[in-house]
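Collaborator request, handled under Task 6.
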Amino acid sequence: MGSQRIFACAVLATVGLTASCSSGAEDTSGLTGSIEVDGSSTVFPVSEAAAEDFMIANPGVRITVALSGTGGGFKRFCAGEIPIADASREISQEEIDACGAAGIDYMEIPVAFDGLSVVTNPTADFVECLSMEELRAVWEPNSAVSSWADLRAGFPDREIRLYGPGTDSGTFDYFTEEVVGEAKASRTDFQASEDDNVLVQGVAGDEGSLGYFGFAYYVQNQQRLKLLGVDAGGGCVKPSDATIEDGTYRLARPLLIYVRLDALAEPAVQAFLEFYLTEAPLIVPSTGYHALPAERYEESLAALSSAIGM
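Structure tokens returned to the collaborator:
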């Protein structure tokens, strides 16, 4: 079958899952086995929540969820080391080629929608919104911006200290492509981590901070952070459930999982994925992200069923 990709498309909206999809997550008793998931720190909370709930219902299955970044997850995935990869961007051509060379066929499944958050320390009372041009000026390679005063007249002469995802992160790829104009094009003098919780701690503890990461991490830590709006040319817009849903917030993207087709021969993997998609409308909002419409999860369940039957 080569490196064929099976797609289930994402749509930007929120609808509860219909009852017709709820039965697939129930009849999983007696399962045994182990499953390893790795990849995006942004998708991590969703996969972790799904894994925890699944293991409560199926104590004979052990699921571990790691967060080495989207790129790190794909490296392991295309080497055949893990059956499921979390991703905050689509698989790249280089990664497609690596999977193809290893004979890895896979399925791409959208599980949620996320708005990327631009944040600073709550003491930064002088800034409420940054334009895409200002964000580009801060983050582009060889940027000359070293203080807030360099960025805009009227801002204080206070050093800007930057926090962002590491280079293996899909969030890093997405932000640099959307803001700078080229994926992975970025200044290098920033505090980087594949773990968004580390970035939260950095921004929260630094009065000169400016950073970015997934919206869910802001929601979970909003008392410690200041959320900035982004002006993409039509006025300042902050990420929220509403602006992410209607597409008015510029820095929004789908969150995905990738599944090796050969791993679908394992009953525990089948059952976990069915559970994941069936329970996603409840799990996704609880982790701070935006659920997809019910019909998209149903389409993914149908695609999964078809792949299992191949």
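The cover message to the collaborator said: "The chain has eleven helices and twelve strands. The first strand starts at residue 5 and ends at 7. Please let us know whether this matches your experimental observations."
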